[in-house]
Structure formats: C-alpha cells, structure tokens
Amino acid sequence: KQEVTQIPAALSVPEGENLVLNCSFTDSAIYNLQWFRQDPGKGLTSLLLIQSSQREQTSGRLNASLDKSSGRSTLYIAASQPGDSATYLCAPGNTNAGKSTFGDGTTLTVKP
Amino acid sequence: GAVVSQHPSWVICKSGTSVKIECRSLDFQATTMFWYRQFPKQSLMLMATSNEGSKATYEQGVEKDKFLINHASLTLSTLTVTSAHPEDSSFYICSARWWEGYNEQFFGPGTRLTVL
C-alpha cells in the first residue's frame, strides 16, 4: 500500500522567499505524480503533473522534480507571494487506472 | 479547458435522508471519475473509481450500498449518500481523468455535506 509523507506539515515564510516542499512515497512503481493546491474549503487545483519517465516539470514560478527510484518529489516555489498561501498536496499515481494516493499536505503561509 | 463542476456546492440534510451529488466534466469526456472524501484538516481519501457504463470499484472499507455511484455518461457521475447520518458529514470531491494514458486528474470544487 502506497504511503505518502509530506514535510514540513506547515511552513510560514516572508514574502519573496524561495522555498521547497518535500514529498516522499514508499512504492516507487508509480505512473506519474501530481502536485495540487487546495485553498480552505475549496477543491483541488492541479499545479504540475510529472510522468514517471520525466525528471521535472516547470510552470511559472513552480518547479517540481521527481526521483522515482528514491521515492521523492520536491516542489520549488520561487519568489513566494501572499497569494501562494494554501495547502499543497502531492499525489503519486500507482496504476494506469489513475488511482492516486494523497499526502497530508504542507500548509504554506506567505506573510506580506 | 479541463473544467469539472459539482452540484450542489453545499447541502444540509436531516439524518436518514438521501443526498445526491453530481460531478460533471464540462469540456471533455471522462471515461473515469473518482470520488474522494475529506475530513477537516485531513487529506483526501479515495472512496471509489467510477467508470462510464460499468459498476464502480469501491475502496476497502467503503460501503457500496451506502454510497451509490452511477456513471451514466462520459460527462456525468453521481454519488448518492443513502440514509445519511451525522458521521457522513464531510467534504466530498470528485475528479475526472482527462483521457486514457495521459492520466491527469482534474478536480471539482467539492460539496460540503452536513447531516443534522
């Protein structure tokens, strides 16, 4: 059974800092890995999708890397802004059926 | 593109009643949809995988007779919580898979269910 751990559980930084969110998973036989953002009381917004054959994906100020063999992924956020405040979830997908396992998330607060 | 909607966004019902939640992919066809529930300050737990035209596959511990899932078309899946009880109060979120092979999930905005 896949287990996903996200560290840290919470993070508070001043605006403008670069930061790294970590995700580790126990079963490296994944098909892909997605990073999501969730605002309080809202659904999930897909940020980045990394296929198992890829090492990283970039979108704007976000960069996600994947090391499948070691069971790790990181989400790098550059020049953080207060609008980045949210909970960030990673979800490795284990099968072609698309089933994903979610970590508990990292709650990020960016202070102006 | 890749928009998923849910209706209703929130619902309050009395214990013992049934509640239906709709999940629609607005601008793409989704052969597979997923239903999750999320308790406060916890992560998402997959309840079931819904495939168009076939029976849903439920995760271990999820009562299929209590959480009825129907995926009648490529753009609509419904979750019916039957004989709801206060412990069923939760945030229910659906997702739809873009298309075979690409495997990216797009999530709906969620439905907040409160059972009195």
Main traits of this protein?
heterodimer, A: 112 residues, five-stranded antiparallel beta sheet, five-stranded mixed beta sheet, 10 strands, globular, B: mainly beta, seven-stranded mixed beta sheet, four-stranded antiparallel beta sheet, 11 strands
Question: How would you explain this protein's 3D organization?
Answer:
The complex is a heterodimer of chains A (112) and B (116). Chain A has strands at 4-7, 10-14, 19-25, 32-38, 44-51, 56-59, 62-67, 72-77, 86-93, 106-111. Chain A is mainly beta and 112 residues long. In chain A, the strands form 2 sheets. A 5-stranded antiparallel beta sheet of chain A has the order 1-3-8-7-6, with no helix packed on it. A 5-stranded mixed beta sheet of chain A has the order 2-10-9-4-5, with no helix packed on it. In chain A, a hairpin with a 5-residue loop joins strand 4 and strand 5. Chain A is globular, with a radius of gyration of 13 Å. Chain A starts with a strand and ends with a strand. Chain B has 116 residues and is an all-beta fold. Chain B has strands at 4-7, 10-13, 19-25, 32-38, 44-51, 57-58, 67-73, 76-81, 90-97, 105-107, 111-115. In chain B, the strands form 2 sheets. In chain B, strands 2, 4, 5, 6, 9, 10 and 11 form a 7-stranded mixed beta sheet that branches. In chain B, strands 1-3-8-7 form a 4-stranded antiparallel beta sheet, with no helix packed on it. Chain B is globular and about 40 Å long. Chain B starts with a strand and ends with a strand. The model of chain B has no long low-confidence stretch (mean pLDDT 90). The interface between A and B is medium-sized, with 24 and 23 residues.
